[in-house]
User: Fold these one by one.
Assistant:
Number 1:
Amino acid sequence: MGEYTLITGATGFVGSAVARVLQQRGHRIRLMVRAGADLSNLEGLDFERVTGDLTAPDSFAAALENCRYLFHVAADYRLWVPDPAVMMRANVEGTRRLMLAAQAAGVEKIVYCSSVAALGLTKDASPANETTPITEHDVIGVYKRSKYRAEQEVLKLVRENGLPAVIVNPSTPVGPRDIKPTPTGQMIVDVASGRMPAYVDSGLNIVHVDDVAEGHALALERGTIGEKYILGGENYMLGDLFSLIGEVACVRPPRIKLRQSWLQPVAVVSEWMARGFGVEPRVTRETLAMSRKKMYFTSLKAQEQLGYAPRPARDAVADAITWFREHGRIRTR
């Protein structure tokens, strides 16, 4: 039986939190890291490093050698990509090949980090769960389609190949070590810095990144093969979340609520500039289309079956603001 627990994506926001939780539980961790990756999120961890990449399947066998468990957290997470095929190759085909390599290596159990982006939404905006119906036609955006397809590939391998995988679906994590930052983290920085005068309202589920990491560990320890578990927190309208951020950061939150239709021309111009100059757009037509849907979810299944217990969203926001301030990301005017 293998002695290592392999984690992909451990240099990132969620992956580094997962690595910390597993090390605290006594796992001997091995991290598959891309060449030249920023390792600052791994400070204080004791780990074995192997070089690998989701787009380089030849690197998987060496990473998985002598591993008992696999946590696949890595993903190409961008809301804008000039070439969707690049993201699909990493998130879908890379995931499928990694799952097959893990099974060939004799890995005992796999926790695959999917996303609520791969799940269905209710028509009445009530919280969705793991069984809310969805088809690929319902999925908006390249990233969400890639996560939907990747999850379907994992489920297919469970059914047809006996892949020993459990799936977790985090909602919108916030908290410390959001080094990029994620789109949600950037929103927190902008609001807490007084740099967001207006917004387009939407609905989302906010969860502390460390609770998501704890949920990953619980999925390994208590999760059923082939099952999905939403790892979420509290549902918020975006305007209410901004009010919470303003209260915690002691700044005035944005008050002007815009209609999606007003920003369509801005999105078109932003995408044109992104293609022409290689800069990431702050708003796209896909993000506007996504904002029309309330991404509300319930984590009741994970709470009842795994013992998952997320803390209040206020704590997640407060920890995120503290970390961003300590690292010079928030400068209130």
Number 2:
Amino acid sequence: MRLILIRHGDPDYTIDGLTEKGEREVALLAKRAKGWEVDDVYTSPLGRAKATAAPCLAAWHKEATVLDWLQEFFFPDADEHGWLPIPWDFYPADWTGDDENFCEDKWLNLPHLAPAGPRYRMTCAALDDFLKGYGYEREGRMYRVREHSEKTVVCFCHFGISMILLSHLLNISAETLLHGFFLPPTSVTILNTEERRGDEAYFRVERFGDCAHLIAGGEPVSPSGYFTTIFQEKPLKE
């Protein structure tokens, strides 16, 4: 089975849509993806994800199924002072001192992150139920192949939720992924199941945050959600 995660285009969060740059990005993405052999397509219920999916769906002559659990990850504030939208973007000293942040799901034991627990577990359960529908049943840190699948499945979603899904599939702390990696707008992340012995399966990353379509089209990679100044001031020339 092949699972493709695509982040939405450069966002205009004020309207839950895309900027003009985002529109150019998704056009280039659709041009790249036109020849892909895609079986099933899913999208977050949020507007920016749907707008990113639309040109690809037109190229594939397909419709997408909306999955609520693919919307951007957030969780309520433990002190009921409103909403703490995201469990990332912390400064280094605010998260690296806690060993739990580097241990699979132990980051949820920290008081300021514990409120994310219910949503995290719900998301992981939804992902496992989703994969079970394709023949892959979670067992510990791996999957059992109940029915082999050759399908290519595409999910249009967001940076944060993609990292949450990857943390579960790869058994890596979400905090480590969220703070140590970046998925640019319209980037493509591909995972395939490795099935080398009996009914054992593990999802392995083939590509991560791939923006080949933007580079080929001469469109700068957006730094939306990225805070490294050199990325913005001195983009890599290729």
Number 3:
Amino acid sequence: MIVTSKLTGAFFLLRKYSVLFRFARWFLLINFLLSFQPTHSQCLGKNLAFRSGEIMQFDAYYNWGLLRVKAGKAEFTTAMEEKDGESLFHIKATAHSLSSWDWFFKVRDTYETWVDTCRLYPREFIQQTSEGGYQAYNRFAFDRNLRSVKTFHSEKGKELKETTLQTEKPAFDVMSAAYAARSIDYSKMSPGDKIPINIILNNEIFTLYYRYLGKEVVKNIDGHHYRCLKFSAMAVEGTIFKGGEDLFVWVSDDQNHVPVKAESKILVGSVNVFLTKAKNLRYKVTCIVD
């Protein structure tokens, strides 16, 4: 009876705040905060942590007290493509609620970005959101010099609204920032280091930051322990997040820099994301302790 009561209460709160399945947008926000230096001028092409054909899969859980509910899944893939006469990395992420929960709140989200192979700067970003009865489409077209971005936004099938954002410094979408982050040399960072980044969210440019917290061994959902680099990040207040540095991510302490675990406190309870599968990584995995 106690468990049933908790589940009923959780369902009410989750529906009220749309927490259970909005992990997709949350995870992508977390993912780009693996860390990234927008002022980094070196061409990253020879130091990429990933390669074409890489696949990463994740499970997301909602936690409330002693209750843990598996909410959905996400998958990230990379491939080389020819686009507008240029060879680009096509990075794609899909996130969906489990079919057993579709009756409650159905999610089918897709995020795609195309980035150059040298500096990993974005050329185009597309987001297609389908969450419950809400549907939205976002497209960002980046100027080659990253000084302006054209955004296209539509909700529930309405006409596209076009906006041009001017940027004094390069701005990134969540996907391009995440993958560029994996090529940074973290050995030059000290615990407590704080670095800003310009990120485009909801057709606005936010200057957010991440903080490097040092090294830590964490237990993944698969039972293995991983040597990781730990980061905290600033969330945008006014969504399901409380704001402040309540976002945490653990990245594999090897050359792949794969996100192993992420967690965040939200308005009601917390959310965890765990790595469940990683295929075709560029380097051999050396961060698993047992």
